[in-house]
């Protein structure tokens, strides 16, 4: 018996009946021999963490573009917070923590430079639009390079969770597994609360600016709000699951408060006047770089030139830009517009 077999047997003994067991995975697009040590979801998690797109998250914006203060969140620290919240909820509900971790680690690898600002530009310029959750799946299945060439050949459950993590989804968009549903809620819990924290640190908001009606429900401090949301998600999900309803959910009162804070953040921070000027600059940079490579696709790295030949120039350019970090995109922009001397100085 392999170590993987032992882990899978332990899953049978410890996971709830409604949890996703590794042995029950719908598998991968390309069949592989099972790993002697790791379950399929452990293997997926490791492939994501070792990918280039995951490493680049450390230099991609969460909300505040190119912050000088190291204490602001980046897309990578957001990912880690989502993972932590997801695993806390998953442990309480006796779900598959390896599947949760794989989905959480991979859910934002398709984000653009400058966060949703870059996404808006690519959505405007790319025929058919651009959505970061769909692009995360594309990164994991097409852009990243595995042993078999294009894609990491991840389990279907992981890709489903990544695809459906975004937004307060409709019934048709809810992840197929409870583990995926947990990550979807954890994403909202994490970003609304840590974006409030960063906004107060930046002086964009004060504690007094936050809507008191929601704070009375969720709590007046960052820690209190996280604790309230996580506990409520666990308690209400347990009630649903005990009744045989396979649904991860907040209670109505807490859910309204979370959505209210989220709406407040969109109106006053994400789309607010202080961020607007920097957003406009970032949009100009992304659009300029996109249009340059659209006209000069041969200037891109060979991998993206090949995509442009096979799937169209716009697709190749979008793939190239979406993989850029904020700093790299700015550096490319500067390189394209700033004059450089062709003569070397002689001393």
From TrEMBL:
This is Deoxyguanosinetriphosphate triphosphohydrolase-like protein. InterPro entries: dGTPase (IPR006261), Diverse_Catalytic_Enzymes (IPR051094), dNTPase_2 (IPR023023), HD/PDEase_dom (IPR003607), HD_domain (IPR006674), PHydrolase_assoc_dom (IPR026875). The keyword DNA damage does not apply. Residues 75-192 form the HD domain. The keyword Repeat does not apply. Keywords: Hydrolase. Belongs to the dGTPase family. Type 2 subfamily. Gene3D superfamilies: Hypothetical protein af1432. GO terms for molecular function: triphosphoric monoester hydrolase activity.
């Amino acid at each position: 018996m392999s170590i993987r077999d032992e882990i899978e047997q332990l899953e049978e003994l410890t996971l709830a009946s409604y949890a996703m067991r590794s042995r029950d995975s719908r598998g991968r697009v390309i069949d592989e021999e099972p790993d002697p040590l790791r379950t399929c979801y452990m293997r997926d998690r490791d492939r994501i963490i070792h990918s280039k797109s995951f490493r680049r998250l450390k230099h991609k914006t969460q909300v505040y573009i190119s912050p000088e203060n190291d204490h602001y969140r980046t897309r990578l620290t957001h990912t880690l917070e989502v993972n932590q919240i997801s695993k806390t909820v998953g442990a309480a509900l006796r779900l598959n923590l390896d599947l949760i971790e794989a989905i959480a680690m991979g859910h934002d690898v398709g984000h653009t430079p400058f966060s949703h600002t870059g996404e808006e530009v690519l959505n405007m310029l790319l025929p058919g639009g651009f959505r970061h959750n769909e692009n995360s799946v594309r990164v994991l299945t097409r852009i990243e390079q595995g042993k078999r060439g294009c894609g990491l050949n991840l389990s279907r459950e992981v890709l489903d969770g990544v695809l459906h993590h975004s937004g307060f989804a409709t019934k048709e968009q809810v992840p197929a597994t409870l583990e995926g549903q947990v990550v979807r809620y954890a994403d909202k819990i994490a970003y609304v609360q840590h974006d409030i924290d960063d906004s107060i640190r930046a002086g964009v908001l004060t504690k007094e600016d936050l809507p008191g009606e929601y704070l009375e429900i969720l709590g007046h401090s960052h820690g209190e709000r996280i604790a309230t949301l996580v506990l409520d998600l666990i308690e209400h999900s347990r009630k649903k699951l005990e009744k045989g309803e396979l649904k991860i959910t907040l209670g109505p009162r807490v859910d309204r408060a979370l959505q209210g804070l989220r709406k407040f953040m969109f109106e006053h921070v994400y789309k607010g006047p202080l961020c607007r000027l920097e957003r406009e600059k970032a949009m100009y940079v992304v659009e300029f770089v996109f249009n340059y490579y659209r006209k000069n696709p041969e200037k891109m790295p060979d991998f993206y030139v090949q995509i442009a030949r096979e799937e169209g120039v716009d697709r190749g350019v979008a793939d190239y830009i979406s993989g850029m970090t904020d700093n790299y995109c700015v550096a490319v922009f500067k390189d394209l517009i700033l004059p450089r001397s062709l003569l070397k100085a002689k001393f």
